[in-house]
Write a structure and sequence with these properties.
This protein has one helix and seven strands, in the order αβββββββ.
Length: about 120
């Protein structure tokens, strides 16, 4: 099945509206492989969700951009996974990516910016 361009744009808009009501980016310290049935980050203890910064998410046709800033006191561990959520706990995990982003320390403030692009065929 392939999306039409207007269908793709509608889905992106609906997702943006849902996440505008509440969006969080989460990071964790595990490199467990992605599986579509996962409902949360896979880290057992080192995982943090942070509400998106003011002005986010943004939507440009079919491209949704989210950004969260993690202060010096937050998420100080090796970032190996990240995800997009619609609440601070529980909720729906929209996506999860296994990616080694490095080790954040308590002397650093990091911004995580995620761009989700819905595509049509």
């Amino acid at each position: 099945m392939a999306l039409t361009t207007v269908g793709r744009n509608l889905i992106a808009s609906m997702l943006s509206n849902t996440l505008t009501a509440g969006a969080w980016l989460g990071v964790g310290d595990t490199s467990t492989a992605f599986d579509a049935s996962q409902t949360d980050l896979q880290a057992s203890t080192n995982k943090v969700r942070k509400v998106v910064d003011s002005g986010f998410p943004t939507l440009s046709t079919n491209i949704l951009t989210l950004q969260s800033t993690f202060a010096t006191t937050e998420a100080n561990f090796h970032w190996q996974e990240w995800g997009v959520f619609n609440a601070s706990t529980g909720s729906v995990m929209v996506n999860r990516k296994v990616e080694d982003l490095g080790t954040k320390t308590n002397t650093q403030s990091w911004q995580l910016t995620v761009t989700l692009t819905l595509v049509s065929s």
